[in-house]
Design goal:
- It is a single chain.
- By secondary structure, the chain is of the alpha+beta class.
- It has three domains: about 30 residues; about 30 residues, no CATH class; about 45 residues, no CATH class.
- The strands form two sheets. Strands 1-2-3 form a three-stranded antiparallel sheet, with no helix packed on it.
- The longest helix is centred in the N-terminal third of the chain and has 30 residues.
- The chain starts with a helix and ends in a 7-residue tail after the last strand.
Amino acid sequence: MVFARRMFILARAASAFAVFAALLITAQIAAAQGASGVVASYADGIVWLSDGTSFSVGDATRVVVSTPATVEDLRPGAYVAITAARMDDGTLLASRVNISPSGGNQR
């Protein structure tokens, strides 16, 4: 009887931990968001877009200027980050390719 009670308590604790872990992961996923638009203003570390969206920038924020390129600019050693759709055959069809000529993860 004592063993069964301990197993019940252990199972409840494991269940509670699983729920907590799922909530934590969900919160982290929800925390990563993006925005795009036309910059309306910048002051005191806050960027305001013309649609009213705002975001903070700090010393660790990387600001990158993109320039148009072609597929001929995809050279060995360049780091790329893509936006793509998964096709029926499992391949990816890129709609956007960002190139970082310095290599390495530049996120």
